[in-house]
Amino acid sequence: MTIDACKQLALAAPPIGKGQISEHFLAEALRIRAVEQKFLALFSAGQMNGTVHTCVGQEFSAVAVAGQLTDDDWVTSNHRCHGHFVSRTKNWRGLIDELRGLDSGVCRGIGSSQHLYAHGFLSNGLQGAFVPVAAGIALHKKRKGEAGIAVSYIGEGTLGEGVLYEAMNLAALFKLPHLIVCENNLYSQSTPQSVGIAGDIAARPRSFGLRVFEADTWHVESLLETARQAIAHVREQREPAFLIIKTYRLNAHSKGDDDRSRDEVAFFHTHDPLNKLLEDPRWAAVNAGIVAEIDTHVVETPKVVMPLQEYLRDQLPRKVSTRLLPVAYRKVRMVQALNQAYRKTLDEGAIHIGEDIHDPYGGAFKVSKGWMDAHPESVFTTSISEAGLVGLATGAALMGTPAWAEIMFGDFMTNVFDQIVNNLAKIHHMYAFQASAPVRIRTPMGGKRGYGPTHSQSLEKLLVGIDNVATLYLTSLVDPGPTVAEVTAFAGPALVLENKVDYGKFIWECPDDLELLREARPVGSLQIRPRNAAATLTLVAYGETARDLAEHLRTLFIETDLVPELIVLQMIHPLDIKLIERSVDRTHRLAVVEDGSSAFGIGGEIIARLAERKAPMLRVLRIGAEPVPIPSITSLELSVLPTAVRVIEQLLKSDLIESAS
Fold first, then answer.
1. Which of 232, 264, 299 is the last residue of a domain?
2. How many domains does the chain have?
């Protein structure tokens, strides 16, 4: 769409306010504009933090869609969300307080302009990030047989985001009641549409089979009717649709960053429907009353902010019980034990979403085999859409559905970082603890299968640094069933890492000369210690590497003359090191082995924690993979990864041996 085409629409538009449009809609549009103009005044007066993206000129887009929804519907929005929020919730007072940083704000001042939450509404400043989340909300409603639809507002600039297409494809495949509203205002921040968007906008959703509706904000009566038709289509047909609303924002992208032609902006100011409406003295008086009501609220609202101690909390499983318990043994392959543990979550009402997890295939490593046959309504196999499927799980979890998402290979977790870091990790805090998305993302990590550089890396050190998201690593040393049950009870999101070599192994049977114990706390660490000798070395590892070391503890003793005690981490974030600390107090030697490269890793964190606690007379050694991509050829792969053989080699070269003599 060109500027000239928009000018023609504006010139051809009939006047509003002559009885053909509900006065309720007109007053709501005026209120949205008055609220946003107050934001700009407050910002200039130094009474607001951050930034503000106004929708001045686009108000009728909000009124036409969000203003015509029911209590059962949900809206997800973007950085330019104020109009959508006011139309959907009517809580303009809470919105003003939010942007002023007050405890009476809709998110107690935490989210501010771009991050808003109320029943039926949530927004995030990231382009496209919430579109698959809205699809997940629609999935929850469809699966539960609940009334209501999901609506996603995007700008035309979001057409450059790949996750949008993942979401449209998934919504079409699963026939979800999801309406995507594209507000086409001709500019992505300061980039003209002719520079940033190629091709036909309407052709994009049509390629996924979505019905497309089109309208503009100058022909208000037609816009209201077209929006009503689009909403009705999604609601009645229970399938996705796409509504394109041609519009123009009269203000800068954010406060003052505006490089558009002054003549161009002036033209649209002159032909703006609300500016024309205010030429009528009756509506000018209505607007003056709205402005006065807003001014009164600002003056009379107490300036109270959230106390720091209320904000400094999270959903991580930090409750610790270091009491050691014996571990029950059963002979079963790890893949079968996982299949059974996750199937139990399906029996209890969870959904599982992933690529190629349908039957009879059952996933790349067969963990999900038989699930779809047993629970066809709860297992969703998707296209290759890592970010999209995690967003889908997030939306369902927000609505209360226990949701698991599988990423086929751990290397592909990089495709999901935006959903993890900017949605899952932040939802609980940025909405002032009013919402939670306890998604569990599970994925196989590690090498030793010859899959090569892009299917063998261990990326856990990139994951454990994400605040507010628990990360754990399962191991075939114990039956994973109890651990999976504990993870299911977590209040917040969690990443569950498995090892692809572990899948084919039987659960480890502890030999008679060793003792296998487990901390009683949720997802507690394991301790494998000699029964008849005092340990002289504390070994720390996790996953399949810990299994490899457990099977070679006798060899390690023979080669190094050190008596090892193995601490196996299962929860690697949040990390509790009390069991490690007690062990090194006895051995005074520590070797930490991690599957990825050791620089900036888990081993370094453990050693730093011990240093902070002033562990006495401690000799330490970090062992990890070589800092290179994992090769496919077996001899090189095993030389790069921290196998038991390499661990022994590193120990023999270290001063831990010297300190033992």
1. 299
2. 3
